[in-house]
Design brief:
Length: 375
C-alpha cells in the first residue's frame, strides 16, 4: 500500500487467493460466472444459516446484489412507495442512504441524530412524523453499531410506516427481526468483506423476489420478459467464491477485531472521560472506530497526520453540506437548530485506525496521541 502513512486507518481482512481457488475452479468447471449460479445460491443458503445461528434470523429470505446501494435502491422500488414520497434518513451517514431514495424516485428528508448512539432513533422519527408525512424510514447502523430492532418493530406497528434498516457495516453484529427489512454491504472495507456486494434480508418473500428480478433487468418468470423496468445489479460467482470462504473464517476475523478493540478500550482509559465512545461500544465490535472529542477533531487529525497515522472523518460533512444534497428538505421544520446533534458531532468525530493488522505498539502510540490532545 503506497501512501504517506505508516499506520493505515482501514486494512481489509479478506481470504488469500489460495483459499478461494477451489471455488474458482468449481466455477470454471461449471462454466457459470453470473446470473444466480450455483455458488451464489450456496452463498445465499449459507448466509441464511449464518444469520439464523448468529443473529436470530428466522423465516427470512436472503438475496445478493452488486452492492448495498443497489440492494437498497431496488428494495425501495419493490416496496411500491408513491412517487416522490418522503423517506426519513439521518443527516450523518454515508451518502448512499440518501442517494438510494433519490435513485428510487423518492425524496430523502434529513433528520438529526442522537448524541449518544450517533443514530436516527425512533424518538427522532416520531417527532418527524408529527410534522410531516413519510412513506418509509431508513435508520442506519452508524459505523457498524447494531440497531436494536425491538423499538423499530414497535415504531413500525404503531405508525404503519415501513422501516428499512441500512445496516451496511453491521453484518454478523446485527440482530434480525422478521418484521424489518435489512440491507448489508459486502464491500472490501467492511468487516465481512468480499470485494463488492450487498444483501437484502427480509421475511417479505414477494419483495425479495421482485428486488431480485429488478437486479436482472426486471425479467420475471420462465418467459424471459421484462415485467417491470429494472437494472443490472447481480452478484457474480467470483464474489460468491470469496464469500463462501469469508463465512468459514468469520470467527477468526471477529476474534482479531475483538482483540484490537479490547486493546483500544484499555489504552484509551489514559485519556479519561474526555473522549466519548459510541453508546454500547464493547458490547459490539464496530466496523470502523470513531471517537468523539468535542471541539478537538481538527487538532487530533493534525497530530495523527504529523505522526504518519491515517484517520478518517467518516460520515462528515453531514449530508446537508454535500453540494448535490444541500437542497434536500429537513424533517424538523420548527427548530432554529434542526441538526443540533449533527453539528456537535462534526466538531469532534474522528475515525481512528481500526483493523486486524495493528500491533500493540501502534495502538499504544495512537492512544498516547489521543490522550495528549487535551494536554
Ligand atoms: C451506512 C452505509 N450505507 C450504505 C453503504 C454503501 O454500501 P456499498 O458500498 O455496498 O454500496 C455504505 C458503505 O460504506 C455505508 O457505510
Amino acid at each position: 500500500m503506497s501512501t504517506p502513512y505508516r499506520i493505515h486507518c482501514l486494512v481489509p481482512d479478506l481470504p488469500t487467493p489460495e483459499a478461494v481457488l477451489p471455488f474458482l475452479e468449481e466455477m470454471h468447471e461449471n462454466r457459470w460466472y453470473s446470473n444466480f449460479g450455483p455458488l451464489v445460491k450456496r452463498f445465499e443458503a449459507e448466509l441464511t444459516a449464518f444469520l439464523g445461528r448468529e443473529n436470530g434470523a428466522e423465516g427470512c429470505h436472503v438475496a445478493t446484489f452488486s452492492s448495498a446501494t443497489t440492494a437498497m435502491e431496488l428494495a425501495l422500488k419493490a416496496m411500491k412507495l408513491p412517487a416522490g414520497a418522503n423517506v426519513l434518513v439521518p443527516a450523518v451517514t454515508f451518502p448512499a442512504t440518501a442517494l438510494v431514495a433519490m435513485n428510487a424516485g423518492l425524496t430523502p428528508v434529513l433528520a438529526d441524530v442522537d448524541l449518544e448512539s450517533w443514530e436516527l432513533t425512533p424518538d427522532i422519527a416520531r417527532a418527524a412524523l408529527a410534522q410531516g408525512e413519510y412513506a418509509a424510514v431508513i435508520p442506519v447502523a452508524a459505523f457498524g453499531r447494531p440497531v436494536d430492532p425491538a423499538p423499530w418493530v414497535a415504531f413500525q406497528k404503531e405508525t404503519g410506516v415501513p422501516v428499512i434498516l441500512d445496516v451496511a457495516a453491521a453484518l454478523g453484529q446485527q440482530d434480525i427481526h422478521k418484521d424489518l427489512t435489512y440491507c448489508f454491504s459486502l464491500h472490501a472495507t467492511k468487516p465481512f468483506g468480499v470485494g463488492e456486494g450487498g444483501l437484502l434480508v427480509s421475511s417479505d418473500e414477494a419483495m425479495i423476489t421482485l428486488s431480485r428480478s429488478l437486479s436482472n433487468f426486471g425479467f420475471q418468470g420462465p418467459a424471459g420478459v421484462v415485467l417491470e423496468a429494472g437494472t443490472n445489479a447481480k452478484f457474480p460467482e467470483y464474489f460468491a467464491s470469496v464469500g463462501l470462504v469469508q463465512i468459514a473464517r468469520w470467527y477468526e476475523v471477529s476474534e482479531r477485531r475483538q482483540a484490537v478493540l479490547d486493546k483500544y478500550l484499555t489504552g484509551l482509559k489514559k485519556a479519561g472521560n474526555s473522549i466519548v465512545l459510541q453508546q454500547g461500544t464493547g458490547d459490539f465490535i464496530p466496523a470502523v472506530f470513531p471517537i468523539y472529542m468535542p471541539g478537538k477533531a481538527e487538532k487530533l487529525v493534525a497530530r495523527m497526520d504529523a505522526a504518519g497515522i491515517q484517520t478518517r472523518r467518516w460520515y462528515l460533512p453531514p449530508l446537508y453540506d454535500h453540494p448535490a444534497l444541500g437542497h434536500l428538505p429537513y424533517a424538523d421544520k420548527t427548530s432554529d437548530m434542526p441538526f443540533a446533534g449533527c453539528e456537535k458531532l462534526r466538531t469532534g468525530l474522528v475515525g481512528l485506525p481500526f483493523h486486524a493488522f495493528l500491533s500493540d505498539e501502534d495502538i499504544k502510540e495512537i492512544c498516547d496521541i489521543v490522550a495528549g490532545v487535551y494536554v
